[in-house]
What we know:
By secondary structure, the chain is mainly alpha-helical. It has 13 helices and no strands. The chain has helices at about 1-10, 15-60, 70-95, 110-135, 135-145, 145-160, 165-185, 195-215, 225-245, 250-255, 260-285, 290-310, 320-350. The relative contact order is 0.15.
Amino acid sequence: MYPRQHSSLTISSPSFKRKMEKATAEESLLKKYLKIFAVVSAYWAVSISLVFINKALLSGSTNGTTVDAPLFVTWFQCVVTVGLCVFLACGAKFFPSLGKFPELGLDVQIMLKVLPLSLVFVAMISFNNLCLKYVGVAFYYIGRSLTTVFNVLMTWVLLGERTSFSALVCCAIIVGGFWLGVDQEGVAGSLSISGTIYGVLASLFVSLNSIYTKKVLPFVDQSIWLLGYYNNLNACLLFLPLMLLNGELPTLISFQGYGNLTFWSMMVAGGVFGFAIGYVTGLQIQVTSPLTHNISGTAKACAQTVLATYWYSEVKPFLWWISNWVVLFGSAAYTRVRQQEMEKNHKAKVIAS
Length: 353
């Protein structure tokens, strides 16, 4: 009996309880870190895969898997997104234990209210894919690096919000890195003027997209899923006349790759990854923070650039690499400055209340 009593006393001792609580805390912390690692890895994998798949579809060299119709490729991805939304809504209805998803319908009034955002969205993804068509994946990040600058500019023009001097300095660093990158891309002999212009326009509409998203969200009860459904539904309709105006119909009629399974696999994969990027982006912000998400995106862009130069066997000048680091530094510095400003404003509100 004595050994049992001794064991009982040992198990109930305060030191043993503290050890158990510490072990439990460490285990839960490990699970948290593993979850964050899994989510960040998923974001990197989806984002980088989407860029490489779209590049292969838009200007790859494999026979039967490249179609010279960037708006058609983008339209198909929107169709896949709408189809996935309907599939998930039906799944949530019949299997509610799998998760919640808003009921989808065809409300013309909501479609019209979301239309301004859809116009911006169509321009954003069109110019984005056109940029990717004409520039290499390695230069793609530099080509679209002015998003932060346009965010500051459009926030001031449309919302009247001023930006601090520190944030403006960071924007100036980004612009400097962009110009150096364009210059060095020319030195490398791979500069595409049209691709660079498309990249600048894509950056502009990315910034407008975030502003209009905030304006339109109240029309769909703040539901990101519902907004994505109606936004892509509008985009499916808007792209049809744009494809005709862009002269893509003869290209699609003469295209010989419709029987190529690889082509359709890549098209569907592009649509699935295009749908997934919105989900993993939101998930990354949820399990980390907006600051960590921006840092992760910046680091991902760096890894994507290095991977692209290796994959496509590209050799870039030293100053070309410097331009990338300048843009990365400016973007990271801007994120940090904005975080400090938000913390300062929050403390001021707390003190005032």
